[in-house]
Design brief:
The complex is a heterodimer of chains A (190) and B (150).
Chain A lengths: L1 H23 L20 E3 L7 E3 L8 E6 L4 H15 L3 E6 L13 H15 L5 E4 L4 H6 L6 E5 L5 E6 L4 H17 L1
Chain B lengths: L1 H22 L8 H13 L16 H15 L4 H12 L14 H44 L1
Classes of the chains: A alpha/beta (190), B mainly alpha (150).
Chain lengths: 190, 150
């Protein structure tokens, strides 16, 4: 009897290891909790993409539930999610774009703003324009403060200007229903 | 032997050259101490987009942006820990290769130690038991042989 229990110990350990490693197969290494959750939007002063004279700051998000979508015309996945975002906007969601350009390197600066505006207008005419307005993150400082790793990424911001959700990757019906809708609906209901 | 020395020297020169090249990027401070700190930090900070690369190795835009930020922060007089904290605030513990000790990660240190203890205990226990058992058995066998012979 004693011997049997002795043999069961390594078997138990082995099974434990198997379970631990097995669930590792299904974990997504790219998913890690954003450290900005439940924190207010970082401070910024940035121009409107289409009207450079006009500037916004973090207070622009107060009083509304906002989807802040980080994107660029050079980003292929962003082009794929644009039609769905437009659909969301048609349903009455307030979507703001955080635009940044790859070609505007703060160290070299090659592209003019007019050029960027042309490209953006063409893209939005082609695929739909979900944005109430676009904030132009000229030197990608706000993106860095937000912990953006690339595009597309989307933040759900509540009426108090706090970040409630940070999604890396595109938004599609599945992601919306599973991840965004529960939080969005409770926020809007408030 | 000579060849070996030669190879070693060449290898060492290679390492040195790559170090020099690395600092010859667009980020230099004119202060060897800060240059070294910059190199160290960019090696210890992890690129958030490209999982298994540090920002020194990566050419992803985010890595370039982070490098520029590290440079900026160092130039403003921030020290090593301040730069790390700045990055962690934005990108989480993930961004720094050295994991923090917390209830979740403590097992990274505890498990190997536990394993060593258990293994040593196991070895000690089996060592103690075995000779006694074998001796009894052998004695019994010897006794049986003796009895048979009689």
């Amino acid at each position: 009897m004693k011997k049997v229990t002795l043999y069961l110990i390594p078997l138990g350990l082995f099974l434990g290891l198997i379970i631990f490693l097995y669930q590792g197969l299904f974990s997504n290494p790219r998913e890690h909790k954003s450290s900005l959750l439940e924190k207010p939007m970082p401070e910024f002063v940035l121009p409107d993409l289409m009207d450079i004279q006009r500037t916004y700051n973090q207070d622009v998000f107060l009083g509304k539930v906002t989807l802040l979508n980080v994107w660029g015309v050079w980003c292929i996945t962003c082009a794929i999610e644009l039609p769905y975002l437009t659909q969301l906007q048609d349903e009455g969601k307030h979507i703001v774009g955080l635009y940044y350009d790859q070609d505007i390197d703060p160290d070299f600066g090659v592209k003019t703003v007019e050029r960027v505006q042309l490209e953006v207008t063409a893209k939005l005419n082609q695929l739909g324009n979900p944005y109430a307005f676009n904030i132009f993150d000229v030197k990608r400082d706000l993106s860095l403060d937000l912990g953006v790793t690339g595009a597309p990424e989307t933040y759900l911001i509540d009426q108090q200007g706090k970040i409630r959700l940070h999604h890396i990757g595109d938004i599609n019906p599945r992601v919306w229903n599973k991840k965004f809708a529960p939080i969005y609906d409770t926020l809007v209901a408030q | 032997m000579n060849r070996l020395v030669c190879t070693l020297v060449i290898l060492m020169l290679g390492c040195f050259a790559s170090l020099v090249l690395a600092t010859e990027d667009k980020f230099h401070f004119g202060e060897p101490k800060k240059d070294a700190l910059f190199l160290e930090l960019t090696k210890e900070l992890r690129c958030p987009k490209c999982q298994n690369q540090n920002i020194a190795d990566s050419d992803a835009m985010i890595a370039v942006d982070l490098k520029r930020k590290v440079y900026e922060l160092l130039q403003k007089g921030n020290d090593r820990q301040q730069v790390i904290d700045f990055m962690k605030q934005r990108y989480g513990d993930f961004v720094y290769y050295q994991p923090p000790v917390n209830p979740m990660t403590i097992w990274l240190w505890l498990l190997p130690i536990l394993f060593v203890f258990v293994a040593v205990a196991g070895i000690v226990m089996t060592r103690k038991r075995q000779p006694a058992e074998i001796n009894n058995e052998q004695l019994a066998k010897a006794q049986a042989i003796l009895e048979r012979d009689e």
